[in-house]
Amino acid sequence: MSPAERPTVLIVEDEPAQREVLAYNLEAEGFRVARAATGDEALILVDEIVPDLVVLDWMLPSVSGIEICRQLKTRNDTRTLPIIMLSARAEEVDRVRGLETGADDYVVKPYSVVELMARVRALLRRTRPAAVGQRLEFEDIVLDPETHKVFRDGQTLKLGPTEFRLLSTFMEKPGRVWSREQLLDRVWGRDIYVDTRTVDVHIGRLRKALCQNGGDDPVRTVRGAGYALG
Length: 230
Known about the structure:
This protein has helices at residues 16-28, 39-49, 65-74, 92-101, 113-127, 161-172, 180-188, 196-210, and strands at residues 8-12, 32-36, 53-57, 83-87, 105-108, 136-138, 141-144, 149-152, 155-157, 219-222, 226-229. By secondary structure, the chain is of the alpha/beta class.
């Protein structure tokens, strides 16, 4: 799996030592990692990098993790973003509050890093299936990440590696509108400088590849916003 294809996990933790331990273990598991020390910083990064999962500490300076979770879960573009809440609060009422605010999982400190990694992988199996080798389907299009093949209406399609990653991104979240900047980060990676116009070129190639044996163009242009599948 190329660096750009690896799922990105955003760690939101104000304790530097805990933040770095989490980052080290997540990177060892093969994930891309972004770090935030405050809730405000986390909200900015969510918009910039479009993480696949957030590990969010409850007790943060200024804006609490609970409030960040609430904000993310009430936004249309991030309401399905999986969040694992970390907290020293072990009472049942606190667990319930965290989950009812929208957290997908709740882990009490001190926690087992091995167990936390397992919980991260379990959530990503639901939200980034292609990243863990699961087949994706949308209407008459099938993408198999294991064999790196794409089929439409039973016929094999020829796609370049970049077009394959673009299609995988779209098929994991059909209907979601991706901006050019978000696609650049997801498909090319944060560490590579590519002009946003490059996205348009590869979208054109993807459209041509998807329609090479006929059929309607499933990629939708959203004026002023970006692109979506369906």
